[in-house]
Fold this sequence. Notes:
By secondary structure, the protein is mostly helical. The chain has three domains: about 1-55; about 60-95; about 140-185. It is about 90% helix and about 0% strand. The protein has helices at about 1-25, 35-55, 60-75, 75-95, 95-185.
Amino acid sequence: MTDRLQDTVNRENAEHGETLKGKADQHGxxxxxxxxxxxxxxxxxxxxxxRRHEQRSLGEQARDAADTAVDFVKEHPVATIVGGLxxxxxxxxxxxxxxRAGRRxxxxxxxxxxxVVAFGLGLLDDIEDMSRHGRDKAVDxxxxxxxxxxxxxxxADHYARSLHDRASxxxxxxxxxxxxxxxxxx
Length: 186
């Protein structure tokens, strides 16, 4: 059974090796690099990276850590605040004075939440009053606009009638004057 398994593995390697070689030839490359060469190159790169990492000073590492922390806080401010509160509450609850303060804070939090609710309801009342006041102002402005437009219409009608009267009078006078001159010419 081991011989059949080895034959199958050899056959698969031969088929895939030919396929890879054919693809490499299509792209104009050669498969001259062996697995050992790649492994040695990879080991050399890993060793170089480790040497660079060891040569970094503690200050550079601290600076990188601080930059990473600042970036995280900028990207996730709410999660940072919630996490800080959770850690603070956890540490505080582990001490006797922290548990005592927690009981006192519970009654204070209840009073504070009542105050916040009252403040919110007051804001809603103020917003309602402002909207009512704004609506009244809008109605008043609409009434003033309608009055002014009627006044302008009256003034425009009066001016148009006045111009019409002047034009009619001027035309009648000009017609009479012209007819008198024509009569005098005969």
